[in-house]
Amino acid sequence: MKTKAIFYHAGCPVCLEAESELATALNPDHYDTEIVHLGNEKDKLPEAEQSGVQSVPALVINGKPYHINFGASLADLKG
Amino acid sequence: MKTKAIFYHAGCPVCLEAESELATALNPDHYDTEIVHLGNEKDKLPEAEQSGVQSVPALVINGKPYHINFGASLADLKG
Questions:
Q1: What one-character-per-residue DSSP string does A6-39 give?
Q2: Backbone angles phi, psi at A51, to 5 degrees
């Protein structure tokens, strides 16, 4: 079974670069990668928070958050 | 030709977790992943700095740095 990986972003320049370089770099044989734009899909904010995501871009693998550089804080996306 | 990816770490707990989850997750068909322990290989510090690495763990893909969470600053590793 593949591991679930979720890449959270918000369309910011830092996010887009991380998306194109990193979110697409995961081994497709082992990872099922979903890309979530938290600016457009605000209903996914609680899910991201629950996984420990504090800022975007972030990659959640196996339920664990990996913050990649810094684009925007989750708090800013709630406004 | 494969893209070069270098994962820089320093043996810290945050680093080791990122290494086991993320450095090993890159698509081996497209990425040639090298793992560098900057605590043990201090001669690689200038190379990491030149790529823009400011803290570990960090992944450099195509010469661009992606800082993953925060383990230790590069400055601390120079001591």
A1: EEEE-S-HHHHHHIIIIITTB-TTTEEEEEEETT
A2: -80, -5
For every residue of A32-63, DSSP letters joined together read: EEEEEETTT-GGGHHHHHHTT--EEEEEEETT
Within 10 Å of residue B40's Cβ, how many Cβ atoms? 10
- B66/A22 Cβ within 8 A: yes
Backbone angles phi, psi at A35, to 5 degrees: -115, 125
The single-letter code of the amino acid at B74 is: L
Question: What is this model's ipTM?
Answer: 0.90
CA–CA separation, B14 vs A33, rounded Å? 22
Contact residues, chain A, for B66 at CB < 8 Å: 18, 21-22, 68-69
pTM attached to this predicted model: 0.92
